[in-house]
Design a protein that fits this description.
The structure holds two protein chains of two kinds. Chain A is mainly β. Chain A contains no helices and eleven strands. In chain A, strands 2, 4, 5, 9, 10 and 11 form a six-stranded mixed beta sheet that branches. In chain A, strands 1-3-8-7-6 form a five-stranded antiparallel beta sheet, with no helix packed on it. Chain B is an all-beta fold. In chain B, 0% of the residues lie in helices and 47% in strands. Chain B is globular and about 40 Å long. Classes of the chains: A mainly beta, B mainly beta.
């Protein structure tokens, strides 16, 4: 099973609605990062949250981290068609070499 | 500031041939990582350089893959000889974090490798 698993695998919403994606992991982490990938393009770094942080905001993005449940959520508020992309969480495992372990991602579609 | 760049963006080769991928990290970033995503699977770590030294190469699939980072600047990843299962997108990332701190890793656009 995966270290990082996103949920849901796919999400389709209307413009203006909020989108929530979840990520669960299995081992202790140093930090958790969220990335976006537009179709056929590279990974864009969205936000990093450290293991001693519980919540972080960046523009329309809100990330929470619950280390007791080994889970994180990414909330995109007031979504736009341009937010259509795949979203990945990636964990930096404690005691590891700072390599990131990715989940399979959530494919978000925002309909205009 | 220029981001991470990768070359080529696409490569189509035949089984048994050799391909070399290049990554130029963000200037000043000591840490350089290679990842790849094969069709339908998650993005997986290949290896991590700190300057010119291999910090962790636990993700390298086999000895057909050779990564170098001479001089601690750009890196190359050579696949020789290529096999069909090597097809996928190869990503490079860099970060400036000191070891153990963990910082944002900035990714390049990837090289899409197709082995036929």
């Amino acid at each position: 099973s995966q270290q990082g698993e996103e949920d849901p695998q796919a999400l389709s919403i209307q413009e203006g609605e909020n989108a929530t994606m979840n990520c669960s992991y299995k081992t202790s982490i140093n930090n958790l990062q969220w990335y976006r990938q537009n179709s056929g393009r590279g990974l864009v770094h969205l936000i990093l949250i450290r293991s001693n942080e519980r919540e972080k905001h960046s523009g329309r993005l809100r990330v929470t981290l619950d280390t007791s449940k080994k889970s994180s959520s990414l909330l995109i508020t007031a979504s736009r068609a341009a937010d259509t992309a795949s979203y990945f969480c990636a964990t930096d495992i404690k005691g590891g070499s700072e390599k990131l372990v990715f989940g399979k991602g959530t494919k978000l579609t925002v309909n205009p | 500031e220029a981001g991470v760049t990768q070359f080529p963006s696409h490569s189509v080769i035949e089984k048994g041939q050799t391909v070399t991928l290049r990554c130029d990290p963000i200037s000043g970033h000591d840490n350089l990582y290679w990842y790849r995503r094969v069709m339908g699977k998650e993005i997986k770590f290949l290896l991590h350089f700190v300057k010119e030294s291999k910090q962790d190469e636990s993700g390298m699939p086999n000895n057909r893959f050779l990564a170098e980072r001479t001089g601690g600047t750009y890196s190359t990843l050579k696949v020789q000889p290529a096999e069909l299962e090597d097809s996928g997108v190869y990503f490079c990332a860099s970060s400036h974090a000191a070891p153990g701190l963990g910082h944002e890793q900035y990714f390049g656009p990837g090289t899409r490798l197709t082995v036929t």
